[in-house]
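Severity: low
Component: inverse-folding endpoint
Summary: output formatting inconsistent between runs
Steps to reproduce: submit the following structure tokens with default settings.
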């Protein structure tokens, strides 16, 4: 496991472009959630354990995006860079997911969705992009537990327009937070969704909830390799306190380094403390027979 020098950053999302690595995430200062910002770090050393330098804020925030700026992730789509991020909007009095665009991974990213993409009556976070085998873009996202009626978070999805500015289908529910056998009895969190297509055709989703040891990363899988399939949950986890031997952590995603090796990127531990704040780490990961396996030294 590679521990970077990136501290006090939650929900890290890593990409590599032309030999340069970028990590985007929720910048946290003394656990002040109202004043979080979308933050970017850059690494030009060519090594994941090299020095990461803070680029700072990379997006031009609209005036209605006043707080709860969480979980930015950047995707290269049709030759442009798109930032999917969460913020609280004065327009809707809700947290929701919006889309920003730039010609560079360093921004500036400018909002193209004119506010939240999700329906205004829903409280949503952690939107991610997935493009299916037909070239149709989807947003997979969290329907927050505090607005579901029963206090249990859902993972949801909807088709998007090809310019990524709006939904073109109704929202569908994929699964609930309390479904996995590993989830704590009172678990209600559906965090950090990330889609992964296996060489076998299996469609997997990384996501975070709590098990007996704390915050962790699990795997859900579609029965037909499509977003709108029936989703089940692997019993084995990708990351947990029990696996790392140190701390729990979560909000994971997968990327490849310059040599084509795959890594799980996430933050650990889950809260600032005397041992240090959330640190971005990279865990080697590989695919085996339609499943993902993490490697801990």
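Observed output (run 2 of 3):
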């Amino acid at each position: 496991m590679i521990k970077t020098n990136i501290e006090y950053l939650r929900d890290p999302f890593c990409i590599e472009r032309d030999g340069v690595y970028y990590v985007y995430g929720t910048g946290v200062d003394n656990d002040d959630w109202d004043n979080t910002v979308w933050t970017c770090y850059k690494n030009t050393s060519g090594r994941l354990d090299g020095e990461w330098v803070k680029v700072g804020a990379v997006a031009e925030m609209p005036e209605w995006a006043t707080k709860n700026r969480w979980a930015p992730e950047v995707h290269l789509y049709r030759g442009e860079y798109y930032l999917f991020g969460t913020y609280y909007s004065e327009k809707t009095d809700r947290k929701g997911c919006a889309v920003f665009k730039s010609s560079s991974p360093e921004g500036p990213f400018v909002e193209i969705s004119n506010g939240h993409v999700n329906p205004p009556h829903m409280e949503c976070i952690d939107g991610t992009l997935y493009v299916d085998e037909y070239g149709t873009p989807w947003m997979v996202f969290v329907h927050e537990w505090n607005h579901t009626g029963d206090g249990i978070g859902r993972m949801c999805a909807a088709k998007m327009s090809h310019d990524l500015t709006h939904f073109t289908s109704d929202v569908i529910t994929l699964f609930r937070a309390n479904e996995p056998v590993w989830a704590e009895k009172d678990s209600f969190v559906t965090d950090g969704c990330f889609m992964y297509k296996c060489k076998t055709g299996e469609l997997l989703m990384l996501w975070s909830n709590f098990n007996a040891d704390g915050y962790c990363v699990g795997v859900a899988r579609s029965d037909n390799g499509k977003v709108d399939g029936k989703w089940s949950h692997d019993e084995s986890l990708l990351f947990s306190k029990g696996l790392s031997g140190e701390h729990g952590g979560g909000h994971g995603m997968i990327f490849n380094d310059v040599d084509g090796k795959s890594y799980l990127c996430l933050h650990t531990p889950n809260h600032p403390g005397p041992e240090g704040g959330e640190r971005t780490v990279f865990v080697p990961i590989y695919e085996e027979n339609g499943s993902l396996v993490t490697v801990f030294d």
